[in-house]
Amino acid sequence: MTLYGVGLGPGQADLVTVRGKRALEDADVVYSPGRLSRSVATEHVPEARIGDLDFPMTRDEEKLRAAWKEAAAEIATTARDGDAAFVTLGDPNVYSTFGHLRRTLAAFHPEVDLEVVPGVSAVTAFATALGVEITAGSSLALREADGGRSPTGPDRMVLFKVTDAPSTHTGLVEAGYDVTYGRRLFMEQGETLVTDDPTAIDERDYYTLAYAEKPEARVEQATDAFLEASDESGLVSDGGAQDIARQERSEGVLCGDEPGGDRQ
């Protein structure tokens, strides 16, 4: 049978994808690596079907490998006879614990079929929460900023694990970046905060991200011309008769005098 790696999205239960919800509902056991992912999963499946996995809070690689081997053995037993799911916040393949499980299963339980169900990642959730548009022609780098690090280089970066925002901010500003921070975005657990003031989020929180952009990095888009050409009334004109006619038709549609406002 199959193990499904299911991305739960950033943390709100209604941001789980339709396919992810179906995989959770169909699984015999839904395994959770932590408290936050468990709280989202229990919005979709009965708590009795949740399998809790125990991972030690340590950087000791030997202990971590032992924990992953134990978890993989338990999950493989379920997946041989039925369907199982392993849930993770965000997307299973983006800064996720799921990679450890996938590698351990491949090494010790290769008979287990694996299917990944993508989820809304922190990158896209962050861009939406801040109103940041990653336009065509732009480049974007993902970096970690744990412990006050200030990675630099790319014109645009999304930084994960910003646990010391004031220290990270100092290095980024000195390198010429504008920086905005977001904490626990689209999460039901804890306070959501968006700010450009690093002192407002100086408390350590693993679920803090930052968007850093150099002011000159913006890529001009073709539709920018609409905003640049608008007059004080908000109508767009380049001075031509065709534009005036279009403006008159637009005004008619807005006022209900012209049909066609809903045409595709």
Automatic annotation (TrEMBL):
Family according to the record: Belongs to the precorrin methyltransferase family.
Pathway(s) where this gene product acts: Cofactor biosynthesis; adenosylcobalamin biosynthesis
Keyword Methyltransferase carried by entry: yes
Signal peptide: none
Alphabetized Pfam families for the sequence: TP_methylase (PF00590)
Gene Ontology molecular function: any one: precorrin-2 C20-methyltransferase activity
Keywords for the protein's UniProt record, in alphabetical order: Cobalamin biosynthesis, Methyltransferase, Transferase
Recorded superkingdom: Archaea
Residues covered by region (Disordered): 229-264
Domain Tetrapyrrole methylase: 2-143
Source organism phylogeny: Archaea, Methanobacteriati, Methanobacteriota, Stenosarchaea group, Halobacteria
GO BP of this protein: cobalamin biosynthetic process; methylation
PANTHER family listed in its UniProt record: COBALT-PRECORRIN-2 C(20)-METHYLTRANSFERASE (PTHR43467)
Protein name, per record: Precorrin-2 C(20)-methyltransferase
Native organism: Haloarcula pellucida
